[in-house]
Amino acid sequence: MAIQDDFPILQRQVNGHRLIYLDNAATTQKPAVVIDAMNDYYTKHNANVHRAVHTLAGEATDGYEACRTSLKSWFSAERCILTSGTTEAINLAAHAWGHSQLKGKAIVLTEMEHHSDIVPWQMLAETFGNELRYVPVKEDFTLDMEAYEASIEGAGLVCVVHTSNVLGVRNPIEDIIRIAHENGARVLLDAAQGAPHCQINMSDLGADMMALSAHKMCGPTGIGCLLVNEETFQEMEPFMGGGDMIETVTLEGSTYQTNEHRFEAGTPRIAEAIGWNAALDYLAQLNLEDQHQRLLEIARSVAHELRSLGMTVYGRHDDKDSSVVSFLHPTLHSEDFAHLLDARGVAVRTGHHCAQPLLNRLGINGTVRASFYIYNTMTDAEEFIGHVQDIVERFA
Amino acid sequence: MTYPEQLSELIEDFKSIDDRMERLEYVFDLASEVNELPTSEWNDSTRINGCQSEAHVRVDVEDSHVHIYSGADSKLVQGLMGILTIAIDKQPVDMAQSLTPDFAVEMGILNSLSPSRSNGFRNMFDKVMNDLSEAE
Q: Which end of chain B has a smaller Cβ tally under 10 Å, C or N?
C-alpha cells in the first residue's frame, strides 16, 4: 500500500482537481492512525490525567505519559516538557531558564531564525537589557560561521534553527554547539523543521534545549515539546503556576513538582499527546533517511525545473537540507502564483514565512514555498511544475 | 440595486462562469482595464493599506465625474482594481457613491479569493470612496 493511502485527506478534490499538498513546512497532513488514536481516546478513555484513581484517568495518564516516553526515546533526550508547540517551548525556555540564567549575558541568534526564535529573546532583552547578536546569512544561504565565532564571547545562550523553514538549509549544528560550549554558552535548537526530516539525537549533538512541534511530523496541532538536558532542567524555574505543577499548596505558599510536570500547569493536551505518540509510531515504520533522500531528489528536480522556467530559487538542496523549495518569478507576484495554483488544487505557501529578517537579508518581501513530505511523489512534483509552466505562459 | 450598464454586463459575465479557476483568471485578465497610475506617482497617500501586495489608487473628480487611476505589483489585485474601474470610472460621482462592495459578492469573486484578498478588495473600495468624498 502506498504511503498516500494512509492519509484520508489526500483523497479529496480541491477546486475540481486532485489535491497536491505542498505546504508541509507549515503543517503536515495526518495519517488515519493518528486520527483514529485521538478518536479512540475521546470515544473510550477520556478523563483528566495524573490525579483521579478511576480506570479512565489511569488510561488517559498512561496515554499522555507514553508520548513523553516516546519523545525522550526518539530524540535521546533527558527531559521532555510538553507544550502547545515550538513557539511556547521557546517562550518557556526564555522565561523558565532565561530569566534566571541570562542576566548580563549576550544571546546569539541568527538572521535565519523563525520569528518564534527571535521575539521571545527580544522580549527578554527588553526586560533584562541583554545584548542580542545576530549571525548573518551569506550569499550562498549559509550562516557566516566566522561571524558566529566572533560573536560568541560573553554569550550565555546560542539560539539556532536546525533547518530553515524558508531555505531548507540544514545548519552546521555540530560546529555551532561545539563552539558555544567551548565558550561556556548553552544552545537551544529550533528543530521544528529538522525533526520531521531526520532522526535527531539530542544527546549525541550535545544540545542543551530543543524545541519542536507535533503537527509538522504527522501529529496533531496544539502540541509540541521542549527537550532539555538534565543540567539545564535543574536550573529552570516554574513559569506558569496552577494545577498539576504543584506538590503542595497552602494559603501561605506552594511547593512545586520536581519532574517535567513542574512546567505543565493546568490540564494538558491529552488527546494531542496520544495522537503525537501514534504519529511517532507511524513514522517509526518508515525509513526516514530513505524518505529524506527521495524527497531531496524531488526538491532538487523541482528547483532545477523552476530555474529553467526563469524563477529565482532560494536554497541549495545540499545532502542534509530539507525538501523545501522557495522561489520567485521575476514579474509574477507570489500571492498571484498561490491563488492560481490553489485554483488547480495545489496548496503552497507564500509570504514571509514568519522569517522577515531573513527575507530582508535576501532583499525580498516573500517567496512561493513548495515543501514536500513523505506522501509526496515525483508525480506530484511533475504536475506542480506543469501547473507552474501553464501559469507562467498564461500570465507572466 | 440598479447598476450602470457596463457593471451589470460584468456581473452577468462572472455569474456565467462556474469554474473557480476560470473566474480567477478572468479577474487577472481585467488587470488591463485600469487607467495606469505610474509607479513614480505611488506614495503614502495613494497606498491601499491592508493589501498583502503593493497597491495604489488615485481618484480625481472632473465635471462631477469620477476618474480613477491605479496600479499594483500583483496582477490579481490590479484585476480587482480593473473591476472597480469598470464600475465607477467616468461615472457621475453620485452614482459611484451609491455603490457598495456587494456588487463583488454578486459577481462571486470575493468567495473565490482568500480572506486576505477579499479584505483587500474592501479596503480598496473604502479608500476609493473616502478619496471620492475628499475630492468632491
A: N
- B24 contacts in chain A (CB < 8 Å): 339-340, 343
Residues 6+ positions from B111 with CB-CB distance below 8 Å: B105, B118
Q: Which fold has domain A3-22+287-395?
A: Aspartate Aminotransferase, domain 1 (3.90.1150)
Domain boundaries, chain A: 3-22+287-395, 33-284
pTM of the model as a whole: 0.91
- Residue B60, chain A, CB below 8 Å: the answer is no
A277, A347, B78 from A268: Cα distances, Å:
15, 32, 47
Q: Report all structural domains of chain B as residue ranges with CATH numbers, in order of start.
A: 5-135 (3.90.1010.10)
Cα distance between residue A210 and residue A134, in whole Å: 19
Question: Cβ contacts (< 8 Å) between A395 and chain B: which residues?
Answer: 25, 28, 75
Per-residue pLDDT at B49: 84
User: In angstroms, rounded to a whole number, what is the distance separating the alpha carbons of residues A142 and A5?
Assistant: 37
Nearest beta carbon to residue A15 from set B21, B74, B75: B21
Whose cell is 473600495? That residue is B125
Cβ atoms of residues B88 and B128 within 8 Å: yes
Q: Which residues contact A300 (CB under 8 A, 6 or more apart)?
A: A317
Q: In whole angstroms, give the CA distance from residue A269 to residue A60.
A: 11
HEC-encoded secondary structure of chain B? CCCCHHHHHHHHHHHCCCCHHHHHHHHHHHHHHCEECCHHHCCCCCECCCCCCCEEEEEEEECCEEEEEEEECCHHHHHHHHHHHHHHCCCEHHHHHHCCCHHHHHHCCHHHCCHHHHHHHHHHHHHHHHHHHHHC
B32 inside 8 A of chain A by CB: no
* Domain A33-284: CATH class, spelled out: alpha beta
Q: Reply yes or no on whether A198 is catalytic.
A: no
Lowest pLDDT segment from A112-121, A131-140, B108-117: B108-117
Pick the closest to residue A165 from A201, A213, A207 (CA basis): A213
**DSSP letter at A376?**
-
In this predicted model, what pLDDT tens digit does every residue of A249-274 receive, in sequence order?
Answer: 999 999 999 999 999 999 999 999 99
Contacts of B74 in chain A (CB under 8 A): 333, 335-336
Q: Which residue of B has its CA nearest to A394?
A: B25
Q: Which helix (H) or strand (E) holds A18?
A: strand A17-18
Decide if A187 contacts A177 (C-beta within 8 A): yes
Residue appearing with cell numbers 554547539: A177
Q: CB of B119 within 8 Å of any CB in chain A?
A: no
